[in-house]
Amino acid sequence: MGLFHRSEVDDARLSEAEAGEDPVRLFGAWFEAARQAGGPLPEAMDLATATSDGRPSSRMVLLKEFGEGGFVFYTNYESRKATELETNPHAALTFHWPELERQVRIEGSVERTTREEAADYFASRPRDSQIGAWASPQSREIASREELEARAAKRAAEFGDGDIPLPPFWGGYRLVPERIEFWQGRAGRLHDRLVYERTDGAWLRRRLAP
Fold this sequence. Notes:
Pnp Oxidase, Chain A; alpha+beta; about 210 residues
């Protein structure tokens, strides 16, 4: 059995006429459809990074914002992913929405968000998540779960009932897309694949074989 198992639903399709010329607009439509489909965490995406010598790693993160400027996520700047992005500022994202038999693959360069953008987002996080950002030395070894909980308790006591500021080691990244591929599952594994590549400031669209 292959990776994808077709459900008994009407056969969806992806035509050039329906897709249009703007991949960010199409992504927005697909993202909203995924939200309406009711699957868990439609904003979850696989983030693939690589070291300066090309050794890859990937993990699931959450999309927090997207638009013509790019796709934004947040992290500890001392984490493994951030360390790799600082030395090799190129990455890839993959969204998978099995309820719709859809994938979107995005590749491009990565830049940090501004501190103002990060501060605005950080202020919107639940208080426990704000404390967790301060408490966790992300991607580094710790002795035990108890150590992590003690660090969180210490930070909670330090901040008391006051506002929790943005940590200096925490912020966002924006992936600026250079290539966006849309994958729509079809019967008989004759899937639809449309890829957009940015060329001289404009998007060039092509159809790929499944």
